[in-house]
Amino acid sequence: MIKRRRNNLFISVFALCFVLLTGCGAGRDTTATSETDLESESMPDEDDIVIGISQVGSESDWRTTNTKAYIETFTQEKGYYLIFEDGQQKQENQVKALRKFILKGVDYIVLDPIVETGWDAVLKEAQDAGIPVIIADRNVSVEDESLYTCHVGSDFMQEGRNAGEWLAAYLESRGRGKKEINLVTLQGTLGSTAQIGRTSGFAEVMEKHANWNMLEYQSGDFTQAKAYEVMEYFLETYDDIDVVICENDNMAFGAIEAIKEAGLKLGKNGDIMILSFDAVRDALLLVQKGEIMADFECNPIIAPLVEETIQKLERGEPVEKVQHIDETYFDYRMDIETLLESREY
Ligand code: GYE
Fold first, then answer.
1. Quick check: CB of 278 below 6 Å from ligand 1?
2. Among residues 54, 59, 197, which one has the least CA distance to residue 134?
């Protein structure tokens, strides 16, 4: 019932925007949909579930898979009408997208937030409009947690801890458990849950190892190009880096490029060891070659869980406030070839 009412609202707001845009247009909310949008977007069927997704951007392989899964999951054949907005790595674009969804009266908002803070006001607007908001992938940090329905994504802190524990066990097995180890970290977008969790989870383990020296943290913004530059700087600044922690695979690709160009060798018998997060296909191929020592999985296929949540809400069932996806890790000693045969990403 609620769904149908909202879709009617969606259509009337849609029509209203059209009138405003083609008519006088005076006093138009700058966040209202543009004429081009109206032309390019089809209309939802009356009982479609209308979902507005605000995506971070397209900064990494992980993100490409994450987006693809949303598009493949929320199809019109299955009764969904998807409005997808790419935030291009800017929070202000994401806030605008949310306001556009509210104006259109969508049934659900799915937000993959770039950073954790700064969402209180717009989430309150969604709540006031009666639109449930599902936070997916990274999380938000808001004063009042009732502003969103639930968070569906990874336990980034645990991913960070897994990386630390792996390194500790590995060094121990190589008789380097008590030796001085120099590390640098290529961090993700500062203030994003993926960055905060991975950095702090790893730091928790580091506290137990006084012989690990973290020489420097620098953000590579989750991109290959930025990480390449930061890695070049690290290599110019420090001459004895043992381990590079890359907070995502695309940054590992950039780091590897810079390390190879500097004439250094990667891997267990090389000069530098790389640990990474995500475990996308191209990175696993590098794990197989031993260029990445271990990769801590972050599952990008969140869409089915988001769909399950929406279906529960449609049936009026309660949903868990925090829903974490199961994750594992892969290292150079494992049979990556067999794994890749059945892996989707
Ligand atoms: O690790 C990275 C992407 O938020 C989990 O964002 C996501 C991260 C992922 O750009 O590759």
1. yes
2. 54
